[in-house]
Amino acid sequence: MKIATIGTGFIVERFLDAVGQVEGVECYGVYSRTGEKARKLADEFGIVMTFTDMDRMMEDTNYDTVYVASPNSLHYDYVKRALENGKHVICEKPFTSTLRELEELIALSKKRGLFLFEAITTIHLPHFKKIRENLGKIGELKVAQSNYSQYSSRYDKLKAGESPNVFNLEFSGGALSDLNIYNLHFMIGLFGGPKEISYVPNRHANGVDTSGVSVLDYEGFFATCVGSKDTASENFVLLQGDEGYIHVKGAANTIDSIEIHAGEENETIDLGQNPNNMVAELEAFVKIFEAGDGNEALKLLDHSATVMKFLEAARKSAGILYPADEK
């Protein structure tokens, strides 16, 4: 797998660090509208090629996969262009602004016979798989809670009157799409789609959600998902059954370690996961790519589409609308 990246933010740096740790993948080039930013990123990671012209990048045949890490609202257009130019795609979360956009991209990837992946760390982490294996130990699930709260430096800019992309509805921003989506991937990855979903946000004067609580109504239990960019907190997941509970240390996108409390037995699982939580997802994508495993790729897309369905429903339940909703 030979990759060209779109974007120059910290998430791209983390992705390129993961590329350097995973066999079977390399970065061919980086794109930025600003040549200086592209060259700085390329130099940092020993990458030769830089692009400032999107058409030139897409037409280059020396690589096969595009990694998209642009502002959320641009994901759809960049992914579509890449697919139309015969490139496989890894796209940062949230995949798109709306379910309709994602369904169109999935259909296009199938038509062109190309792989399309969502770069979502949660479901690929070794600890997530251990949670699934051990769920039966806590009996019948009654309550599920998750909290991913991380005070954003860009929130200070928002309070100062600026409009950072992540806090701008024009760019499909907000705490639900930026942080709480990891909680949704966690819950839906374990339990599937809920019967209903709702979202109660704290909103800035510009209408964007800076924090909020989503409630997922499953048959027999509720799951609450807290995502906050205007406060900090200890991040955790708690899965509570009638015979015990599982305590996840760390946010749903890292799952640092797991404590299983079942009856008189207490067990801690710490597999020593890679500090870069993007390594596991990239290893999964490379494995699928090298094996040409279309069925496994479609399973991941089905999961992403389910998450997008309920992410959009949660957002609209709070009256939060993006420009893409009007298309």
From TrEMBL:
<dbReference type="InterPro" id="IPR036291">
    <property type="entry name" value="NAD(P)-bd_dom_sf"/>
</dbReference>
<dbReference type="InterPro" id="IPR055170">
    <property type="entry name" value="GFO_IDH_MocA-like_dom"/>
</dbReference>
<dbReference type="InterPro" id="IPR000683">
    <property type="entry name" value="Gfo/Idh/MocA-like_OxRdtase_N"/>
</dbReference>
<dbReference type="Pfam" id="PF22725">
    <property type="entry name" value="GFO_IDH_MocA_C3"/>
</dbReference>
<protein>
    <submittedName>
        <fullName>Oxidoreductase</fullName>
    </submittedName>
</protein>
<feature type="domain" description="Gfo/Idh/MocA-like oxidoreductase N-terminal">
    <location>
        <begin position="2"/>
        <end position="117"/>
    </location>
</feature>
<feature type="domain" description="GFO/IDH/MocA-like oxidoreductase">
    <location>
        <begin position="136"/>
        <end position="246"/>
    </location>
</feature>
<dbReference type="GO" id="GO:0000166">
    <property type="term" value="F:nucleotide binding"/>
</dbReference>
<dbReference type="Pfam" id="PF01408">
    <property type="entry name" value="GFO_IDH_MocA"/>
</dbReference>
